[in-house]
Design goal:
The chain is mainly alpha-helical and 154 residues long. Helix content is 82%, strand content 9%. It has one helix at 3-128; strands spanning 130-136, 141-147. A hairpin with a 4-residue loop joins strand 1 and strand 2.
Length: 154
Amino acid sequence: MDHREITLEADKIHQNRLSSVTEDEEEQDAAYTIVTVLDKVANIVDSVQASQKRIEERHREMENAIKTIQIDILKLAQAHGNTGYTVNKLLEKTRKVSSTMKEVRARVERQSANVRKVEAKQEEMLKKNKFRVVIYQVTVNLTYCCAVVVSPPQ
């Protein structure tokens, strides 16, 4: 073996070593890149899962709020129905009272006219100085006549 041949063989061995080191470095770089990408993917998945949990919790809160609102709306509708019923009853009673008031007013006017007539007769009788006193008892109706003389004022 010649010096040249030894040198060539040494160069080949050295190149093989360099190429294997380069290949190892490339494999390490590729593995590091893969690990880095996997780490980023894992972080993204964790972030998505945390967001999913927050979204689900908010969804539950919204469902509870909606149920509460629906219950309140049902109560309000029921109260509205009850109020409508009560208002109708009050309107009906107001109409009845109004018609009764008309009847009462008519009776009062008739009685007032009768009272005026009685007062006029009483005046007339006092002017004539004659009037009757009627006394009623539970079982017996007694009528007395009396003459009263009223002296004119002096």
